[in-house]
UniProtKB/TrEMBL annotation:
Residues 1-35 form a coiled coil. It comes from Ladona fulva (Scarce chaser dragonfly). Signal peptide: none annotated. This is MRH domain-containing protein. GO terms for cellular component: glucosidase II complex. InterPro entries: Gtb1-like, Man6P_isomerase_rcpt-bd_dom_sf, MRH_dom, PRKCSH. The keyword Nucleotide-binding does not apply. Keywords: Coiled coil, Disulfide bond, Signal. SUPFAM superfamilies: Mannose 6-phosphate receptor domain (SSF50911). GO terms for biological process: N-glycan processing. PROSITE patterns: MRH. Residues 51-155 form the MRH domain. It comes from the Eukaryota.
Length: 170
């Protein structure tokens, strides 16, 4: 069988397109698998934060937290962004009541001059709205973010509630 150059070219570009589609699907599958494997809490309560980002600006920098992804810092008056860490995992104290879901760790950030790689610990506390409320750097290149979110609020125990209200009201 004789194949013209035009036919060969068409076949090649069709094969290339099929190849691209396969790669796109594999990437998508990997992303879906990653988010299925991720620990979003006992009742998947933190899943809502995946894909969102929150910012806080102080005198020098705008800090950005994209939960389950990364933490960054960029100078207010221009300049490049610095990576303060990539999602590592839950890091709360398991022996405390709040448990491991009270802190997040982002590590392996950009190397600090003459120091460690940057890392960020996020403290989560209960509040009505998701908000990054403050950022500090207690040690050079070690950042602490305070993040308020309804995801860590607990339901008031019904019995406690009842005793607070008093039974005679019923
Ligand atoms: C940059 C920022 C600071 C950090 C210094 C360390 O200026 O990332 O937060 O303390 O680098 O050299």
């Amino acid at each position: 069988m004789k194949i013209s150059i035009a036919e060969a070219n068409r076949a090649r570009s069709e094969a290339e397109e099929a190849d691209r589609n396969v790669r796109d699907l594999l990437r998508e599958t990997r992303q879906i698998q990653d988010s299925l494997d991720r620990d979003y809490g006992l009742e998947e309560e933190f899943a809502v934060l995946d894909g969102q980002c929150f910012e806080y600006t102080d005198r020098e920098y705008t800090y950005r937290l994209c939960p389950f992804d990364q933490a960054t810092q960029r100078p207010k008056n221009g300049g490049s962004e610095t990576r303060l860490g990539t999602w590592s995992g839950w890091a709360g104290d398991e022996s405390c009541k709040a448990g491991k879901y009270s802190r997040m760790l982002y590590d392996k950030g950009q190397g600090c001059w003459n120091g460690p790689q940057r890392s960020t610990v996020v403290h989560l506390t209960c509040g009505i709205e998701h908000t990054l409320t403050s950022v500090s750097e207690p040690n050079r290149c070690e950042y602490v973010f305070e993040f308020v979110t309804p995801c860590v609020c607990r339901e008031v125990d019904e019995k406690v509630h009842e005793s607070l209200l008093g039974h005679d009201e019923l």
